[in-house]
Amino acid sequence: MTKIARDGSNVTDADWKFRQNASNFARQGYAIRGLLNASLLARATDGETTVGDITGSVVCLDKDASARPGFVVSASGQIGLVCQSCGEAFEFPVDSQSVVHVARDEAELASWEDEAFESIGGDEKTSALELVEDELLLAIPYVPRCEKCEAMGEDAPVSREFS
């Protein structure tokens, strides 16, 4: 199954939500790309965070280029955050990508525990939507700061630090 659409026209919400074993994302030829409907990203729009147009993808790794099976997850677009220093809303650009390796079984996954890469068990059920939304959430700074406050460094106001 390959679902590819630069503008998202051939990828439906059901395609993004379809839950399958992680090993299916790592199989040769798997790819899903497209624009994600902001209403699907409920975890990312929690609280004061808003989501603009987000393009996501989950694409299997090239078997010739990687010794381990896996896939690449990416998320790019704009999210709206609130600066934790000055309280002003600002747009934050996201362009994030991760490689996730897929283990055959629990023993292989356990042997990778000390490795410096993301991994998942092949029988773990997930969806392309969950993977892309996780990537998006990991790209959000723990303490969001607008450009003005970021440039001020330590001298930035801290009016919202504990709110």
What does this structure look like?
The chain has 163 residues and is α/β, with parallel strands linked by helices. It has one domain (2-155). Helix content is 20%, strand content 36%. It has helices spanning 13-17, 22-25, 106-111, 128-139, 147-152, and strands spanning 2-4, 19-21, 31-36, 50-60, 70-82, 89-103, 118-121, 125-127. The chain has a six-stranded mixed sheet with strand order 1-3-4-5-6-7. Strands 2-8 form a two-stranded antiparallel sheet. The longest helix has 12 residues, at 128-139. It is globular, with a radius of gyration of 18 Å. It starts with a strand and ends in an 11-residue tail after the last helix.
Give a quick set of tags describing it.
two-stranded antiparallel ribbon, 163 residues, 6-stranded mixed beta sheet, globular, alpha/beta
List the helices and strands and how they pair.
Blueprint (H helix, E strand, L loop, with lengths): L1 E3 L8 H5 L1 E3 H4 L5 E6 L13 E11 L9 E13 L6 E15 L2 H6 L6 E4 L3 E3 H12 L7 H6 L11
Parallel strand pairs: 1-3, 6-7
Antiparallel strand pairs: 2-8, 3-4, 4-5, 5-6
